[in-house]
Amino acid sequence: MASTPSGAVPQLGDVWLPSASPLRARIQTLVAESGPEGRQQWLAQSLLPALELPVQAPAVYLGQQCHGTLIRDVDREQPLAIPLPGRREYPDCDGLVTRASGSVIAVRTADCVPIVVSDASRPWLGAVHAGWRGTLAGILSELLARAIAEGSRPADLHLWIGPHIHACHYEVGQELSEQFCAAFGEQTLGHRSRHLSLLEANLAQAARARVPRANIHSSGLCTYEEQNNLPSYRRDGRCRGEIITAAHLTIA
Prior knowledge:
The protein is an alpha/beta fold. The protein has a single domain (15-164, 216-251), classed as CNF1/YfiH-like putative cysteine hydrolases (4-Layer Sandwich). It has helices at residues 36-45, 47-51, 132-137, 139-149, 174-184, 198-208, 233-236; strands at residues 15-18, 23-32, 60-62, 71-73, 87-89, 95-98, 104-109, 113-119, 125-130, 157-161, 216-218, 242-251. It has a 6-stranded mixed sheet. A 6-stranded mixed sheet has the order 4-6-9-8-10-11. It is globular.
């Protein structure tokens, strides 16, 4: 089961998902500072200290917000961007996977859905950024299919769904609402027509992959609601920061 020990990150605390014993998947939610220059400085200077990783730990691997379904394997594919201090970047993808203990994978969001997947029976970890485009295109289905193709059993997969904009604050056009309804069912429209639930759309993908509902855990936080003190593109535009959801396999 996921748990949230006291201490680490002010917004959520650490979240832990099962992995092959003695490992567990540690998930940390951090907020990069506002403005493009501020965010880059924060990533370069503050990300590694905020994660409280051992000095000998490898760099953090980061995807971008491309709104597609490409998932990179950090164990087998070299980063495409010039390596930067403390991090390696894949500027063309919205998802990352690793099997290596200690390798940190991270995705960026600011209303979109960050999702982390671990396997309770073997070392395997994946993370995706799922906005409406990526969700509609099935990026979570792609990640789960990749895990299963490598030998994971659906019953052993566990999901963490981080803070994202909730349906009550996410009104979309009629055409898009109809596309989601056709793809994932009426539950994706929440309680009001054209108010899109990205959570329900991704839960539908997990259900199709036969992941047990009991294995899926969510922060329950909406990025749009100001009291949660999280960046929201829809509420604030580009002026605020972004959420960094980082995960790695470690001995808990």
